[in-house]
Design goal:
Radius of gyration: 21 Å
Order of helices and strands: HHHHHHHHHHHHHHHH
CATH class: Mainly Alpha
Number of helices: 16
CATH topology: Growth Hormone, Chain: A
Shape: globular
Low-confidence stretches: 1-12, 199-222
Strand content: under 5%
Protein name: Major facilitator transporter
Helix content: over 70%
GO molecular function, one term: hexuronate transmembrane transporter activity
Distance between the termini: 29 Å
Number of domains: 1
Keywords: Membrane, Transmembrane, Transmembrane helix
CATH architecture: Up-down Bundle
Structural class: mainly alpha
Largest sheet: none
Pfam family, one: MFS_1
Oligomer: single chain
Mean pLDDT: 84
Number of strands: 0
Membrane topology: Multi-pass membrane protein
Length: 430
C-alpha cells in the first residue's frame, strides 16, 4: 500500500467513528420526536378526550406511514446516497414534530403523526447503509449497536425532559422545542459528513480481511440498485422481513404504551412517570451496545458470521422471556427491571438483526432491504396497535400483551434460521 493510500486509510479509520457519532445523535433525535406522544398521552387524553381505541389509531397512523417512509427511503437512499437522503428525512420529520403544536384533535394528531412517520422512515435505511459503507463486517454490529443505542438515549432524555417542559410551558411548546433539535443536527450533518473515499475504504477493508466487501465495492460501481421484484424473491430478504415483522411491534409497544401502563396500572402521574422510564431505557442502552459487541467479539475470536450473529440473537431472544410475568410483579422496581431487561434484549437483537442485512446483501442493496424489512415491521406495528387498543378497551389488562412480546423473538429466530441456515450472501443479478 503506498503512502498516500495508507494515509487515506488511517484517516478513514478515525473518521468512521465520527460518522457513527452523527448516526447516534440522529437516532437520539429520532426517538425523542417519536416518543413525545407517548409521554404526553395522559395529558393529551385529558385535554382532547380520546379513547384507548382512538389513541391506538393515532399510533397506527404513524406506523402505517412509517412503513411507507421506510419503503420509499430504502430506495431513495440507494439512489441518492446517504448524505442527501438522510438530510431530507431529518428535515421532514423535524418539521412534522413541530407541527404537532398546531393541532388539537384526534384527526389532526393522526395527520401529523403520518407525516412524522414518512420522515422517520429514512433514519434506519440511511444509517444502516452508511454503516455498511464505512465499517468492515467485523465492526458493523458494534457500530450498529452504538448508533442504535441512540434510541435508548433518546428514550432516556425524553422522559427526563419532556414532561417537565410540558408542565412548565404547555404540551405545544414541548413539541416545538424537541422538533427544532433536528434542524440543528441538519446543519452539523452538512458541515461534517462526506461520502466515503471508495479507494481508501476498500483498501482498509481488504487489509482487515473483509474480501467480500472489497469485491462488492468494485461491483457497486458497475451495478445499480436491484429492484424490489428481485429482492422479494430472495429467502434472505424474507428472513429479514420475518425478523422485523414479529419483533418491531414489541418495541413499539414499549415505546408508545409504557407511559400509559405506568399511569393506568401503577397509578403514576406526569410528575413521577419519568424516573421509571429513564431507568428502563438506561438499561436498554447496555443491551444495544452489548448485543452488537457480543457478535463482533465472536467474529474477532474466529467464529463464522452465521454462528456469531445467531448466538447473539438467541441470547437476546431468551432474555426477553421474563417479561411474560411482569404483570405479577407487585413491586414497581422489580417490574421496571423486568421491562428494562426485555427492552435491552430487544435492542441487542435489533443491532444484530440490522447487521444481517449487510451480511446477506451487497451495499448497493442494503438500503432497499432495510426499507422492505422496516415496512414489514411497521405493518406488524399497525396490526399490533389495533390489538392493543381493543384488548385494553375491552379488558383493561396488559398481561396478554406482555406475553405476546415474550414469545415473539424465539418464534422469529426459528423462522429466520430455517430461511437462512448458513447465512450465505444472496446472489443478485449484476
Amino acid at each position: 500500500m503506498n503512502t498516500v493510500v495508507a494515509g487515506a486509510v488511517r484517516t478513514a479509520s478515525r473518521y468512521r467513528w465520527t460518522v457513527c457519532a452523527l448516526l447516534f445523535f440522529a437516532t437520539v433525535i429520532n426517538y425523542m420526536d417519536r416518543q413525545i406522544l407517548g409521554l404526553l398521552a395522559p395529558m393529551l387524553q385529558h385535554d382532547i378526550g380520546w379513547t384507548q381505541v382512538q389513541y391506538g389509531r393515532i399510533v397506527i397512523a404513524f406506523s402505517a406511514f412509517y412503513a411507507i417512509g421506510l419503503l420509499c427511503f430504502g430506495r431513495i437512499v440507494d439512489w441518492l446516497g446517504t448524505r442527501i437522503s438522510y438530510a431530507l428525512a431529518m428535515f421532514v420529520w423535524s418539521i412534522a414534530a413541530m407541527l404537532h403544536a398546531a393541532v388539537g384533535s384526534v384527526m389532526g394528531f393522526a395527520m401529523v403523526r403520518a407525516l412524522l412517520g414518512i420522515g422517520e422512515g429514512g433514519n434506519f435505511p440511511a444509517a444502516i447503509k452508511t454503516t455498511a459503507e464505512w465499517f468492515p463486517r467485523r465492526e458493523r454490529a458494534l457500530a450498529t449497536g452504538i448508533f442504535n443505542s441512540g434510541a435508548n438515549i433518546g428514550a432516556v432524555f425524553a422522559p427526563a425532559l419532556i414532561p417537565a417542559l410540558a408542565v412548565a410551558f404547555g404540551w405545544r411548546s414541548a413539541f416545538v422545542m424537541v422538533g427544532a433539535i433536528g434542524l440543528v443536527w441538519l446543519v452539523v450533518w452538512f458541515v461534517m459528513y462526506r461520502q466515503p473515499d471508495g479507494r481508501a475504504h476498500d483498501d482498509e477493508i481488504a487489509d482487515e480481511g473483509d474480501e467480500t466487501n472489497a469485491a462488492d465495492a468494485a461491483a457497486h460501481a458497475k451495478a445499480g440498485a436491484p429492484g424490489f421484484k428481485e429482492l422479494i424473491k430472495k429467502r434472505e430478504t424474507w428472513a429479514f422481513i420475518v425478523g422485523k415483522f414479529l419483533t418491531d411491534p414489541v418495541w413499539w409497544f414499549y415505546l408508545f404504551w409504557l407511559p400509559k401502563w405506568l399511569n393506568e396500572s401503577r397509578g403514576m402521574d406526569m410528575q413521577h412517570i419519568g424516573l421509571p422510564l429513564v431507568v428502563i431505557y438506561a438499561i436498554t442502552t447496555i443491551g444495544s451496545i452489548g448485543g452488537g459487541w457480543v457478535s463482533s467479539a465472536l467474529l474477532r475470536a474466529g467464529w463464522t458470521v452465521n454462528a456469531a450473529r445467531k448466538t447473539a440473537m438467541l441470547i437476546c431472544a431468551c432474555a426477553v422471556l421474563p417479561i411474560a410475568f411482569v404483570s405479577q410483579a407487585e413491586n414497581l422496581w422489580v417490574a421496571v427491571a423486568i421491562v428494562g431487561l426485555a427492552a435491552a434484549a430487544h435492542q441487542g437483537w435489533s443491532a444484530n438483526l440490522f447487521t444481517t442485512a449487510s451480511d446477506l446483501f451487497p451495499r448497493r442493496a442494503v438500503g432497499a432491504v432495510v426499507g422492505i424489512g422496516g415496512m414489514a415491521g411497521s405493518i406488524g406495528g399497525v396490526l399490533f396497535s389495533e390489538v392493543i387498543g381493543q384488548v385494553l378497551q375491552r379488558t383493561g389488562h396488559y398481561w396478554v400483551l406482555f406475553a405476546i412480546g415474550a414469545s415473539a423473538y424465539l418464534i422469529a429466530f426459528a423462522i429466520m434460521h430455517m430461511l437462512t441456515p448458513k447465512m450465505k450472501p444472496a446472489k443478485l443479478a449484476a
